Amino acid sequence: MTSSDLRDSILHHLKYSLGKDAAHAVTQDWRMALSLAVRDRITDPWFDATRTAYAGQNKRVYYLSMEFLIGRLLQDAIVNLGLLETAHEAFTDLGLPLDTVLSNEPDAALGNGGLGRLAACFIESLSSLAVPAMGYGIRYEHGLFKQSFVQGRQIEAPEDWLQQTHAWEFERPESTYHIGFGGRVVQKDGRSVWEPEDGLIAQAYDTPVIGWKGRWANTLRLWSAKPTQIFDLDRFNSGDYIAASAPETLARTISRVLYPDDTTPQGKELRLKQEFFFTAASLRDALRRFESEYDDLHLLPQKVAFQLNDTHPAIAGPELVRLLHDERGLPMDEAIATARGCLAYTNHTLLPEALERWPVELMGRLLPRHLQIIERIDAAHAAEKPDRRANALEDGEVKMGELAFIMGHKVNGVSALHTDLMKQTVFKELHRLHPDRIINQTNGVTPRRWVLGANPRLSTLITDAIGDGWVGDLEQLSGLETHLDDAGFLDRFAAAKRGNKTDLVDWVQRNQGIALDPDAMFDVQIKRIHEYKRQHLNILEAIALWQEIRDNPNADWTPRVKIFGGKAAPGYVFAKEIIHLINDVAAVLNADPVTSKYLKVVFLPNYNVTLAERLIPASDLSEQISTAGKEASGTGNMKFALNGAPTIGTLDGANVEIREHVGTDNFFLFGMTAPEVDARRELGDHAAQAIAADPRLARALDAVRDDTFAPGDPGRHAGIAENLSGHDYFVVCSDFTDYWRAQREVDAAYADQGGWMRMAALNTARSGWFSSDRSMRGYLADIWRTGPALGADGE
Ligand code: CJB
Predict the structure, then answer these.
(1) Which of 294, 494, 535, 754 has its C-alpha lying 20 to 30 A from 424's C-alpha?
(2) Which residues carry this modification: N6-(pyridoxal phosphate)lysine (predicted)?
(3) Is residue 639 flagged as an active site residue?
């Protein structure tokens, strides 16, 4: 496609799809027209992929996830189609910068954090690998809330990405399923039949996801809830307009908002309804597709794989059994075995509060037949493994982790450490009963979005050095190592980083009115705000450093900007206090005439995928400082390493594997290991001991406790100080001293820019293993037992 073809297509859509005259078009019109023109280019490979999968009778992978944090789609599609240059030229002709058009797209925030972003990377990788696959989720009307700060406090506003037409989706009014709730189970002709009392319609919306080089496209199918009855005409005619529209309002509630909760599901009925809603619709859709091709249900495990992204779709187990046994007549034991052959479960967290459990009463009321089936699943499991008790039903609750484990033929952790801890802790008993079931599949990230799209300067440099094969085969980055002794290469590497930092400096100046020095080290912590992720450890270190610079302003300090980004769940009070403290500390430090040339703190509001794409390429240092044993994997850590930002981190999640890959000399390790954390907690007064041993820590905590950062409002941050010097469950104080030491090593290393750039480039060269293509190959080989539908040559 030439730039004039693309320009013609854009003008065509502007006129005939959007009804706009070019003379009156605003940026949004141009963005829509470009999206439609690009979407046209995706449609043929998309249809071809579907036809190929049917013709080849390939096994299909269905990825069931409550969250798909896809972000913006336009640039990604352009990059994967190889049309970036063409699009630049087309818009040069049209007199508008392409970047202006691209940045007009809303960020589809249909996820909270790592789990949702991982799902988005996986779907892209499955398309890039040409694996017949489909993502199934919910088309939330409102994604993750918009965050702003008022006097340092987080304020939440509803997110409204669907206020504008979503350029990428195709509405499928014909793809609908009736989803029931409640009611009773009756016996008919010796069979159990669920007769739901309420119901609604799940309607499909399809977004094509194009893979690298446009060879293959899969579908992200999101379900929207519609009422069975649009409105109540009798009530309308009697003048009760509100009651008349109640059916619609109630139904729409199911797909209205994404729960703004990261690791602690709200124990709410609505959440369980959401989970059943999208899971049931997805299973029926997949079964319909299967039955259009095959008439033997025993083939199901050979032809269909359902991956449960955490426990949110774990109701898939009993629902699939119900569909096979109650509705299709397979004997119960066969139905359970067949369902297990199709299902696999990925665990993403060990935090006890995040392992979903539903009261039996609620399950019985909303899904009475499913509760009976769960009892049967437990009974069958107990019959198979009579020696021990490890059930889904216990103490009046349905434990969704156990249910997913029992109903999955494989259960995977998301990093090596997390997988080991799963075996030792939450699934200890089940692991003993099924020693082959738990496997590891370390997470990964897509290089198309996170390097090629987000970091064009670095990408050009890499391609100049080793060719462009790395985009589809990230391990080729190792070829960069031979270039590291070439001073010219390292200079260009430094220039790319410097260019990215300068862009960020300009953006922060324009958007926040804060001036930053691009020569300072950009030290970045971006992720959800959570005590286990320990943003408060980072800000405590900033306070201590500020105090030390004030004591000794003429010393040789390494200038540093600490950048934070992340949202706190609206109900998580302590996380919101951490945000408030960071903002208050930033206000004081940035206004300090003596220290601010060495140390600044910036908290960028409304962290999202787009902001991550801006920040990560401009980062020097990656903060991955969670309490060991708590972060299942992390994926931000991989994006930073790939983009040439060494990590300061604990031995937690995938940090362990990143350190092994990049080399221990190129990673700033600190802190206790997971077993050491457990042992430390046994000492009741671990925080007090740590504070007594480190006057620097004591002084920083005093500043949090008094009104240093809350002038005129002493006590504002006392809650944090009390928590840290008392219970301190996440052992912030006990890790502080070693964190300080590692940070000073970072300072010294950064002061030697030649050495630093080499370390940064080694991070890039050695991080190729962290591609989500590698993760997907692992799932394909070890869980789904299938492969690409096309060979490397496209045949
Ligand atoms: N994770 O983002 C979430 N939400 C959850 O509810 C549970 C876990 C994260 O999943 C990521 C993808 O596996 C992990 O990298 C991360 O450590 C984990 O917290």
Answers:
(1) 535
(2) 639
(3) yes
Helices 535-551 and 732-751 pack at an angle, to 10 degrees, of: 60
Taking phi over 0 as left and psi of -120 to 50 as alpha, with beta for the rest, 694 belongs to: beta
Mode of pairing for the β-strands spanning 560-565 and 621-624: unpaired
pLDDT of residue 625: 99
Q: Is the pLDDT at 792 greater than 80, yes or no?
A: no
pLDDT at 794 exceeding the cut of 90 = no
Cβ neighbors of 370 (< 8 A, separation 6 or more) are 276, 315, 318, 319, 322, 363
652 lines ligand 1 (CB under 6 A): no
Element (H, E) at 655: helix 655-662
Between 352 and 406, name the one with better pLDDT: 406
What is the maximum span of the chain, computed from C-alpha positions, in angstroms?
Answer: 89
d(CA 418, CA 426): 11
Domain regions of the chain by residue span = 1-56+74-106, 57-71+107-443+778-784, 470-770
Neighbouring CB atoms inside 10 A of 762's CB total: 22
Based on the residue annotation, tell me whether 635 is a catalytic residue of this protein: yes
Please write the tens of the pLDDT for every residue from 53-108.
999 999 999 999 999 999 999 999 999 999 999 999 999 999 999 999 999 999 99
Instruction: Yes or no: say if 612 and 636 are a contact pair by the CB < 8 Å rule.
Output: yes
Region of residue 329 (left: phi > 0; alpha: psi -120 to 50; beta: else): left
Confidence band of 793 (pLDDT split at 50, 70, 90)? low
Q: Is 3.40.50.2000 the CATH number for 57-71+107-443+778-784?
A: yes
CATH fold of 470-770: Rossmann fold (3.40.50)
pLDDT at residue 266, rounded to an integer:
67
Ligand 1: residue of 308, 348, 414, 421 to mutate (most ligand atoms within 8 A of CB) is 348
Ligand 1 pocket member 115 (CB < 6 A): yes
Share of the chain above pLDDT 70, in %: 99
Q: Which distant-in-sequence residues (6+ apart) come within 8 Å of 380 by Cβ?
A: 332, 333, 336
The Cα 594–Cα 554 span in angstroms is 10
Question: What is the pLDDT, as a whole number, of residue 795?
Answer: 64
The verdict on the CB of residue 453 being under 6 Å from ligand 1 is no
Pocket test for ligand 1, best of 349, 417, 624 (most atoms within 8 A of CB): 349
Count of all residues that appear for the chain in the document = 795
Tens of pLDDT, residue by residue over 689-715, are: 999 999 999 999 999 999 999 998 989
Domains 57-71+107-443+778-784 and 470-770 equal at CATH topology level? yes
Task: Give me the pLDDT at residue 243, please.
Answer: 86
- The whole-number average pLDDT for the span 357-368 is 96
Query: What does the pLDDT read at residue 134?
Result: 98
Residues 273, 274, 279, 284: what is their CA dihedral angle, to the nearest 10 degrees? 70
For residue 140, what are its two tokens? 């939330």
Looking from the CA of 125 toward its CB, the CA atoms found within 13 Å total 27
Given a contact cutoff of 8 angstroms between Cβ atoms, the answer to whether 508 and 514 are in contact is yes
Q: Which two tokens stand for residue 73?
A: 């789609």
DSSP string, 611-633: HHHHHGGG-SEEEE-PPTTT-S-
Please list, in sequence order, all residues whose beta carbon lies within 8 angstroms of the beta carbon of residue 562, skipping any fewer than 6 positions away.
Answer: 523, 524, 525, 538, 539, 542, 599, 600, 601, 602
Quick: pLDDT tens for 494-508: 999 999 999 999 999
Which tops the pLDDT comparison, 265 or 439? 439
User: Residue 381 is encoded by which pair of tokens?
Assistant: 């499991």
Decide whether any atom of ligand 1 lies within 6 Å of the 611 Cβ. no
Q: Please, are residues 146 and 152 in contact by the beta-carbon 8 Å criterion? A: no
Neighbours of 704 (CB within 10 A): 25
Closest C-alpha to 759, from 655, 645, 656, 660: 645
**521-526 and 198-210 as β-strands: parallel, antiparallel, unpaired?**
unpaired
